[in-house]
């Protein structure tokens, strides 16, 4: 990096700190610090959600997938689009009507008694510490790999700091920078800086994609060279191809039939984020009303899947042509940036990667601190704590989480491996999280059993030698099946929630579906939406998202038939949505 690139980076960091300190004036209460006083617009909340998922690790992760498995490897994360559509269409208004501060606190709205309290405490602990720290470490791992690829650090000891490796020193400096504005500004600082960081991250992705394709001789030349590599999986959007005699599964994609089926039929609803996911729920709870919560979900869908997906993929494909001897495909993204971008532009791209990293880590820190403060400290240790004390606890726990995240990063090597571990330990409880909104019989004991069993089985089948299941898809299916047996048995042998608890939930949330019909009749409550209309909107919205995603990619890769099919599916599905639901729910003509 040239001196001008360093100046750009330092300038960006200084501006971020100023924004965080300036926004700290808005924090007067726990609500201000963790849900921005519930005053966010859908556009800002959705942009923050997109920035959170656009970490420094994501382009590296996609580059690693494409380099080792080809395009179809992206179904590992594309499949979550199904859950994110459900979040935007079905669950966003339900979460906003609940009015809770965290999804852990929601458990004591939906359930009652000691089981609900235990569930809230255990969920808060697991999500705030092991799960969240793995996520923070995941981002720091990517940061470590990027700065080493850029030549900023080399892992050599720093004598004046007692021989501490320069990589650790740099991670510590960046961690302090993130802490200052996150601890001071709370969610307001996180969201506002997220918006700036998202714009920078998108500009950086465009710059790297343009430079990489240009260096490869343009899109036509790049595609010709990729075909010449005799790796059919590289340009196959799905892990099979038509060979004249029928469909042939592409072995080079390293995606078994069981794994691909798991992506589409199990992973997205069995994972613990099936009804939104902690930081996404935090953003939806922070919006002004239900319509803004739904709008936030749609803004995230468009940016995350339709705008930036193919920017990352294009860079990954270009790396296969430009860096044929690359050993670690996850490093191809920063390597291309260093090799083909001139000064100033390189500085902007480095800033975009740092911005993406900071948006993810700041969100994880604030979100995790909300569990430790609201769901553990206030709920079980100091119920009478005043707002000033809760703000101090939130700031202290933010520091704790970041330190633990850095430690996690120093003991990991593969971004893709960490990603799959996070999914494995969160698989199993998703179906319970969905059903609790639609069926009165789900109780706290069933959700607790599903969460603990999924965590234990997923962890053991991933890392314990004697019971490890090598095939990823088979592992997900077995984890989901074992967890299902456990939570169903537990639910049947434990009593249902009391009528008072169920009535309180129905009055507050107005849930849809026949599972609540008796209670709604007793309370004379009409659901805001019918289950049939929600299912129809979900199906149409899935068509819009995946028609647009796959159609755009097919046109980009000069696969005209696939492009036209995707375009037709998108148009056919979007018309009834814009005429009905989008107009009535979000004021879109």
Put the structure in a nutshell.
GO terms for molecular function: D-glucose:sodium symporter activity. The protein has 589 residues and is mostly helical. Helix content is 74%, strand content 2%.
Question: Describe it for me?
Answer:
The protein folds into two domains: 401 residues, Up-down Bundle (Sodium/glucose cotransporter); 61 residues. The protein contains 25 helices and four strands. The strands form two sheets. A two-stranded antiparallel ribbon has the order 1-2. The chain has a two-stranded antiparallel ribbon with strand order 3-4. Helix 8 packs antiparallel against helix 16 and helix 9 crosses helix 16.
Spatial sequence of strands, sheet with the most strands: 1-2
List the total number of helices. Answer: 25
Main beta-sheet strand count, sense and barrel state: 2 strands, antiparallel
Strands, count? 4
The proportion of strand residues reads under 5%
- Run of helices and strands: HHHHHHHHEEHHEEHHHHHHHHHHHHHHH
Radius of gyration: 24 Å
The residue ranges in which pLDDT falls below 50 over 5 or more consecutive positions are 585-589
CATH topology of the largest domain, anyone?
Sodium/glucose cotransporter
CATH superfamily of the largest domain: Sodium/glucose cotransporter
Which CATH class of the largest domain applies here? Answer: Mainly Alpha
Please tell me the CATH architecture of the largest domain by its name.
Up-down Bundle
